[in-house]
Specification:
With 469 residues, the protein is of the alpha+beta class. It folds into three domains: 58-240, Transferase(Phosphotransferase) domain 1 (Transferase(Phosphotransferase), domain 1); 296-390, no CATH class; 401-468, no CATH class. The chain has 16 helices and ten strands. The chain has a four-stranded antiparallel β-sheet, with helices on both faces. Strand 5 (102-104) and strand 6 (110-112) form a beta hairpin. The longest helix is centred in the C-terminal third of the chain and has 31 residues, at 370-400. The two termini are 32 Å apart. The relative contact order is 0.09.
Length: 469
């Protein structure tokens, strides 16, 4: 689940890239990219529910190993080529191919992710210069029009890095990297080839690293790279059908650095003020309209048609943010989340995967199974605590007005608290008598103290109005 804070997105002026990523992923579906299944939002965040890949990204593993073997690099590049072949067929340029955006599954297959700056190819795109400088092609660095060839240059940079353990062009800034790219053409010479690597591999990497797009391998499409001698007689069909055994199987436990978790960042006073101004702005609520997405073909009809008739229509009604009727609750106890039909322990409430997806499905109004239900209850309890804090604040406000408010809450079977009874005991400080259920005893006059009590009763009514809301 990818969670993005709306205020932070608007503050960094990234709303276009966020919406563009969602729109592109809604059109794409391929085994070698990370596919989107749902997208939705709440008052604070945007959410993307995507394929679960547990092998970590290539940046983590290259930092651990520093080098990859030729067989491992060939397998990784082959997986990436299949993904690029698919997105290039729809004239989409990824423009940010790098190890951080290539994630492994448990079998060691590589999948492309992060389509935030991906664009549909246009003839005049010289102003689109976003990307990672170390993997950007010369035409993008120089602000020139570019094509799908920029993705193959990044692929050549990664091949160079996997062989030699360092990128071909290094620098502390974009300007410094640009100067080195324009200074000379990097080539892997015969003496530079690592032990265990072939001349064909070095030639393929060198041809993808060509600075002039017209001479670069892959400028006319993925088939050019596939026809290279390095990939001669490669079993592309078996690779597509996941029949090959990957030469690199990622470890189950050690494949992720937790310092990259999306923790709550420490916000300074100026940042909080900026975010507050964004939240109260007029376009905050309307900026992400139509962000909702639901993949109607996510579940296999052959497996679920008899169990859940019209399940997709029901899910659409539940998850559509414009539908205010949330009374429909669907049971997903037999629902298989993953496309490979591998069952997971649905009763394991300590599994962070289930808890995270429980949060996501809770936001959509769906309670799939016991573990998800427990995660949903956790969220409801947090909402109850927040609501209780608001009520306590109103009580303090009433006490300052010399009135006491006692609220009797009763929880329903769905863990949703509702205010059933509100009893107000109004105390007359002048006579010392106590009233019952909104009535007061004692004589009244037109003294200034009674006028204060009259103003206090208006304060109590205002508190009651807020509580009811």
């Amino acid at each position: 689940m990818k969670e993005m804070n709306k205020a932070k997105i608007i503050d960094k002026k990234s709303d276009r890239s966020v919406k563009s990523e969602r729109d592109l992923l809604a059109k794409l579906n391929h085994p070698f990219i990370i596919n989107m299944h749902y997208s939705f939002q709440d008052s604070d965040n945007l959410y993307l529910i995507m394929d679960l890949l547990t092998g970590g990204d290539l940046r983590f593993h290259i930092c651990k190993k520093r080098y990859f073997t030729e067989d491992q690099t060939k397998f990784f590049i082959s997986c990436i080529l299949l993904g690029l072949e698919y997105i290039h067929h729809y004239h989409i340029i990824h423009r940010d191919i790098k190890p951080e955006n290539l994630v492994l599954d448990s079998k060691g297959y590589v999948h492309i992710t992060d389509f935030g700056i991906a664009k549909i190819q246009q003839t005049n795109n010289h102003k689109e210069t976003s990307g990672t400088p170390g993997y950007m092609s010369p035409e993008v660095l120089c602000g020139q029009n570019h094509t799908i060839a920029v993705d193959y240059f990044a692929l050549g940079v990664m091949g160079y890095e996997f062989m030699l353990g360092v990128r071909p062009y290094l620098g502390k800034s974009r300007k410094e990297i640009k100067e080195k790219v324009m200074a000379k053409q990097v080539i892997i010479h015969k003496n530079d080839i690592k032990e265990g690597w072939s001349l064909e591999a070095a030639d393929c990497i060198n041809r993808m690293l060509q600075r002039k797009p017209a001479k670069r391998l892959g400028v006319n499409g993925t088939h050019e790279v596939k026809k290279h001698i390095w990939f001669k007689n490669y079993p592309w069909s078996d690779l597509y059908n996941n029949k090959l055994i990957s030469p690199f199987i990622p470890p189950i436990e050690d494949n992720f650095d937790y310092k990259y978790c999306n923790n709550v960042e420490k916000q300074g006073l100026k940042t909080k003020e900026r975010y507050a101004e964004i939240i109260i702005s007029d376009n905050y609520k309307s900026l992400f309209n139509n962000y909702f997405y639901f993949n109607r073909y996510d579940m296999k009809y052959q497996e679920n048609a008899s169990l859940y008739p019209n399940i997709h229509e029901k899910m659409y009604k539940i998850m559509n943010p414009h539908n205010r009727n949330r009374s429909v609750v669907t049971d997903f106890s037999n629902y298989r989340r993953f496309s490979n039909n591998k069952k997971i322990n649905v009763n394991d409430s300590n599994n962070p995967l289930l808890v995270n997806h429980g949060r996501a499905f809770s936001a959509m109004g769906v309670i799939p199974n016991k573990a998800f239900l427990e995660a949903n209850n956790y969220i409801n309890n947090r909402k109850f605590i927040k609501k209780k804090a608001i009520l306590d604040n109103y009580k303090l406000e009433a006490n300052k007005s010399k009135k006491n408010i006692f609220v009797n809450d009763k929880g329903s079977n769905k863990n949703k608290t509702s205010i059933n009874k509100i009893k107000i005991f109004m105390v007359n400080n002048n006579t010392g008598n106590t009233g019952n259920q909104g009535s007061t005893n004692g004589n009244t006059d037109t003294s200034s103290k009674d006028k204060e009590n009259y103003n206090s009763s208006n304060t109590v009514k205002n508190c009651l109005t807020k509580i009811k809301k």
